[in-house]
Specification:
The protein has 78 residues and is mostly beta strands. It has one helix spanning 42-49, and strands at 5-14, 22-31, 35-38, 54-64, 68-77. Strands 1-4-5-2-3 form a five-stranded antiparallel β-sheet. A hairpin with a 3-residue loop joins strand 2 and strand 3.
Length: 78
């Protein structure tokens, strides 16, 4: 990961369920390492999209100088 700026997406996990057409997101942000807000849980992302069967999960991590960071979870399924 970069020291100045990072913006990366990666696969976290997969199941044997077929890939669905729904995607739900959930995120948490961090300011200065002092204030963390949000709910980046898989459960929250799945509920937001009405997903009952999860096929796979991706995440995106963004960081700017350690001052601001964001973690986003993407849940795919039916």
């Amino acid at each position: 990961m970069g020291a100045l700026y990072t913006d990366m997406q990666s696969g976290e996990t997969a199941t044997s369920n077929t890939v669905g057409n729904k995607v739900g997101t959930a995120e948490a942000t961090n300011l200065l390492g002092l204030l963390v807000m949000g709910d980046a849980s898989i459960n929250t992302a799945a509920k937001r999209a009405g997903i009952k069967k999860i096929s796979h999960i991706d995440c995106q991590k963004t960081n700017l100088l350690g001052i601001f960071s964001k973690y986003t979870v993407f849940v795919y399924g039916e």
